[in-house]
Amino acid sequence: RKEVEQDPGPFNVPEGATVAFNCTYSNSASQSFFWYRQDCRKEPKLLMSVYSSGNEDGRFTAQLNRASQYISLLIRDSKLSDSATYLCVVTYTGGFKTIFGAGTRLFVKA
Amino acid sequence: DAGVIQSPRHEVTEMGQEVTLRCKPISGHNSLFWYRQTMMRGLELLIYFNNNVPIDDSGMPEDRFSAKMPNASFSTLKIQPSEPRDSAVYFCASSLGGLWTVSNQPQHFGDGTRLSIL
Known about the structure:
The structure holds two protein chains of two kinds. Chain A is mostly beta strands.
């Protein structure tokens, strides 16, 4: 079993739709959590950190459930520009052990 | 502000040649990471430095790969001899944070080096 697992993609949604991604992690010693976005042939870029209480940034909402060991990302009112691969990232103590999920591909269509 | 700077952006070379990839982390960041990304294997952590010291190189695929960080502003990843299966995008990333502190600081990636070994 992989340490960090994500929903298999791709997700194909129309503009304006709400879409949710889940990510599970296996190590309960996990400390920090992030969602990154990676566009085709580009580097991963931080989308948002994930806090225990959940957090929102515009159309994006991230949730953390430590008991069930998963994090989620909700995108509301999807835009064409949201089309990308979304990577779940889990970091362990000291930040030196970082595991990236395989990514979930999102296609938003007009 | 300058981000993580990698060079070269693209490298095409023949099998057996030595390849050197370069990275300049964000000023003030004390952690540096080298990753490799392929379609088949996704993003793999190769090695991690903290305060210029290699901490975890368990992801380095084999002895043909080596990495150095002679100072806080420069790191290299070397492949010698190179093989076609080394073809991938190699990313360097940097962040704040140390070994013994809980780190909620994200990593910032460079543009990557697209490496093709013929």
